[in-house]
Design a protein that fits this description.
mainly beta
Amino acid sequence: MKNRIVFLIFLVFPLILFGGEKLWNGKNVRFIRVKANGCYIVVTTDRNPNSVLIKYTLPEELVKMEKKKDSLEINVGKTVVNDSSDVINLKINKQVVKKDTVYINLSPRKTCDLKFQFGVVKAKINFGNARFRNLSLESGVSDVTMDFTRAKRINLNKIGISGGVSKLNIKKLLNSGADTVSIEGGVSKQIIDLSGKLKNSMYLNMDLGMSMTTVSFDNKLPMRIERNDEVISSTTMPDNFVEKENGIYESKNFNNRKMFIDIKIDNSIGGLDFIEK
């Protein structure tokens, strides 16, 4: 009996000391929100069969997970809240050490919406084949990579991305299967990779603001681009595109294609470069 008690103590003590893991079965949830401030966060969607797995080196009080009816909210990071005189002030600790890493694995059993709200973070989001319907990302002063390389069976309705002072890198966007992708850039650097498998026509709307954006694509991809540039903005168009009317361009293989990419660009004082692969 004593040996069993000693064994249990040694088994449980490391979990108390380091925070351990949190598990959740994902039953009936339709909405997942992940909030993060002041940390390095890694999100995957199908690493293991558990619906949500969180491994972290942050103190346990900084990683909170709460289930409310049909939604799950995960909060991570270094945030101090001071509530006085009906005013809430958020103070974010920007001095983040490398070991402050949060790993979150999401693979819900039911189709649901996924929303990220990032403050001062560096994040890598690796999308597998999880059942997501709509995807939303709100980014502050952050460095975010969204990777759809392994998302070969996922089909999203909509992706919405809004960035502040940030860096955004989207890999293999076509694998997302999204019907509509909306990107609003503030003062940011954006790299958008239009590669992968085109599952249906995709409508990409970009309001660039003051961002510097690079869009790479395969020259065999049927594309239509409608640009609205201000005087002090800059857009470099691909060589093989033909201007059909004022501000509207089509690739030479655009005609009579069932699936294509339709891009609408509002460029105020930013820069946009198209790069053919």
